[in-house]
Design brief:
With 222 residues, this protein is an alpha/beta fold. Helices cover 51% and strands 12% of the residues. The chain is built from eight helices and five strands, in the order βαβααβααβααβα. The chain has a five-stranded parallel sheet, sandwiched between helices. α2 packs antiparallel against α3, α3 runs parallel beside α5 and α4 packs across α7. The chain is globular and about 45 Å long. It starts with 8 loop residues before the first strand and ends in a 5-residue tail after the last helix. The structure holds adenosine-5'-triphosphate (ATP) and ligand LXEULUCI. The site of adenosine-5'-triphosphate (ATP) has 14 residues, from α1 and α8. It comes from Polaromonas aquatica.
């Protein structure tokens, strides 16, 4: 496979827990490497030593939604300035397992936390000197593409049942994940050009074909 562009590419992967993101991110990384690109494979919350410490708190400790949102955005800021922005400046492909859409979906949709506060945090964290060379400080640094693995909460719960010990979010009821999915839908409606929605209820092979097709149609893989 050949990649047609040597611009930095920032791609995020989203979906409720168990939707099947992780299954395909590693395969995409391989496809981009085969195309001659350098890939930074990372995740949120996490991706730096500091952000991974914050991840452990967010995934395991009880806290109110504002505390949770502040910790997630603090982790994101550290991740952006020390990993994502430098990789984009080196024209790498950044594949990020979750990004800010997850905060709007989980904290905004799932927890019902104030969207205006999340928007303010998004502007602070992604707007200020996130990237040195290309973007102006007034532009929010957002993924070029967000791949949303769309799966019903019931199917996702079935896939996760017995697969691993559930963390704080995975232990939430189906109704929570219905609200999370609603949060993703709202983000897609607000910025449809950025999103590729994948029917994640298909077989692994069919999902992979759909994911690959999205990247081929953009000219990023062939
Ligand atoms: N298309 C599929 N059909 C059936 N099972 C699948 C499919 N894709 C993935 N799985 C299985 O579902 C489970 C969840 O997949 P995976 O870990 O990739 O999801 P995820 O979206 O990364 O979840 P999380 O965000 O919670 O880490 C795994 O056991 C995986 O093997
Ligand atoms: C980025 C982000 C994540 N979360 C939640 C979503 C998941 O339940 C976990 C991360 O686990 P994964 O196995 O790595 O997907 O964290 C969140 O609530 N808010 C966020 O912004």
């Amino acid at each position: 496979m050949r990649s047609s562009s040597l611009e930095g590419l920032f791609i995020s992967f989203e979906g409720i827990d168990g939707a099947g993101k992780s299954t395909h991110i590693a395969a995409l990384a391989d496809a981009f490497r085969l195309a001659g690109r350098t890939v930074t494979l990372t995740r949120e919350p996490g991706g730096t030593p500091l952000a991974e410490k914050l991840r452990a708190l967010v995934l395991n400790d009880a806290m109110d939604p504002l505390t949770e949102s502040l910790l997630i955005f603090a982790a994101r800021r550290d991740h952006l300035v020390s990993v994502i922005a430098p990789a984009l400046d080196r024209c790498e492909v950044v594949l990020c397992d979750r990004f800010t859409d997850a905060t709007f979906a989980y904290q905004g949709g799932g927890r019902g936390f104030k969207l205006d506060v999340l928007r303010t945090l998004e502007t602070w964290v992604q707007g200020e000197n996130s990237r040195q060379s290309k973007e102006s400080s007034e532009t929010l640094l957002q993924p070029h593409l967000t791949v949303w693995f769309d799966l019903s909460p019931e199917e996702a719960a079935q896939r996760l049942a017995g697969a691993r010990l559930p963390d704080k979010f995975e232990a939430q009821p189906v109704e929570f994940f219905r609200r999370v999915a609603g949060g993703y839908e709202d983000r897609l409606q607000a910025d449809p050009q950025r999103f590729a929605r994948i029917d994640a209820s298909q077989t692994r092979e069919a999902v992979w074909n759909d994911v690959k097709q999205v990247f081929i149609s953009k000219g990023w893989l062939s």
